[in-house]
Amino acid sequence: MANLTSEYMGLNLPSPIIAGSSGLTDNLEKIKEIAEAGAGAIVLKSLFEEQINMEVEAQAVNNMYGNYNDVENYVSFYTKKHNLNQYIKLIKDAKAAVDIPIIASINCISAGEWTNFTKEIEMAGADGLELNMFILPSDPQLTGFEIDKNYFEIIRKVSAVTDLPLAVKMSWYFSSLSRHMVEISKIDSVKSIVLFNRFYNPDIDLENETVNSGHIYSVPEENAMCLRWVGALYGHVKSDIAATMGIHDGESALKNILVGASAVQIASVLYKQGPEAITKMNQRINDWMDEKGYENLDAFRGKLSQQNIKRPMIYERAQFMKYYSEHR
Ligand SMILES: Cc1cc2nc3c(=O)[nH]c(=O)nc-3n(C[C@H](O)[C@H](O)[C@H](O)COP(=O)(O)O)c2cc1C
Question: So what's the pLDDT on residue 21?
C-alpha cells in the first residue's frame, strides 16, 4: 500500500485529492461524505467580497445610529441575508466533524475593508484561506501593471491581518504569467498557487439569439492547460502548486503530480459521480504507485516538469508547429 500523504500549504493531507470550492462544500453533510470518501482536504464554498462588504457597511451604520429601529432592521436584513455568521459556523462545524484540513475561500477583486473579516475565519479554526481572485482584464482603461498590482495589494492586505497560510487561485490572463506567479509566490504568507480559476464562459443560443452561460462542468481536455503551466512553474515558484481544471480521474491526478502539483482540486467530477469519485481516484493512484514501485508522492512529484526533463522545449509552443507540420 503506497503512502498517499502530501504536504500542502504546510498542512498534512492524507491524500493529494482536495474537494475544490463549490456548491458541494457549503454544507456539513456533504463535507462529511467527501471526507469519508478519502479527500485530503476541503475548500469551502467561496464567500464573496461583496457579501463581507455589506456586513462591514451594516456594522458602520449600526455604530453610527445606535439602537435606531429602522437601522436595526436594515442591519439584521443584511446580516441574515448574507449569512456571514453561518460561514463562520460552517468552518467550526466542519472542523469538529472531520479530521482533514478545512480551507476557507473568499472570492475577491479588491483590497477593501472586507480583508479584516479574514481574522474571524482564522479564529473560527480554518486551517488555511484560499483567495479566489476573479479579476478579468476586460476594462480597456486598465493596464496590465495596474491589474497585477491589485493582486499584490489584496494579498498583502489579507496577510497583514491573518497568520493563516494562503492559497491564491489565479486565472491565466497575465501578459507574463510565469513572472507574475513567481513574484506572488515570494510573498511569505502565500503557500500555494492554485492553477487555474475556471470562469463561467459565455455561450450563444442560436435559436433565441441570446448570450447564455456555457458549460458549468469541465471536460478532461481542459486539464492540458494545467499540465503545461504546473509543469513550467514547478521549481520556479516558491510555494506549492495545486492543479484544478478537468481532473476527472486518478490518471489525470497522477499526471498533474508528475509535472509538479502538490495536490489537485476537483469539483465537476464530484457533481457528476459523487464523493465515490475520490475513493476511485485514491485507489488508482495507489495501484499505479505500487505497479511502479513508488513508495510516496515525493518519489515522482515534478519528475516530468519542464526543469526535470531532457527536452524542456516540449512544453513550448514551437513543438506545436512541429506537430502540425508532421500530421497531415
Ligand atoms: C458549480 C460550481 C461552483 C463553483 N463554485 C466555486 C466557488 O465558489 N469558488 C471557487 O473558487 N471555485 C468555484 N468553482 C470552481 C471549482 O472550485 C474548480 O476550480 C473548477 O470547477 C475546476 O475544477 P473541475 O474541473 O474539477 O470542475 C465552482 C465550480 C463549479 C462546477
Answer: 97
> Taking each helix axis from N to C terminus, what angle separates 84-97 and 28-36, rounded to the nearest 10 degrees?
30
Pairing of β 41-43 and β 102-108: parallel
6-326: CATH superfamily? Aldolase class I (3.20.20.70)
Rounded to the nearest whole angstrom, what is the distance from the C-alpha of residue 199 to the centroid of ligand 1?
Answer: 8
> What is the rounded distance in angstroms from the CA atom of residue 20 to the CA atom of residue 6?
16
What cell numbers appear for 29 in the block?
Answer: 453533510
User: Which residue has better confidence, 58 or 172?
Assistant: 172
Q: Look up residue 28 and give its three cell numbers.
A: 456539513
pLDDT band at 319 (very low <50, low <70, confident <90, very high): low
Atom of ligand 1 nearest to the CA of 217: 31
pTM: 0.91
CB 173 within 8 A of CB 133: no
Mutate to test the pocket of ligand 1, among 17, 21, 252 (most ligand atoms within 8 A of CB): 21
Best residue among 22, 201, 271 to mutate for probing ligand 1, ranked by most atoms within 8 Å of CB: 22
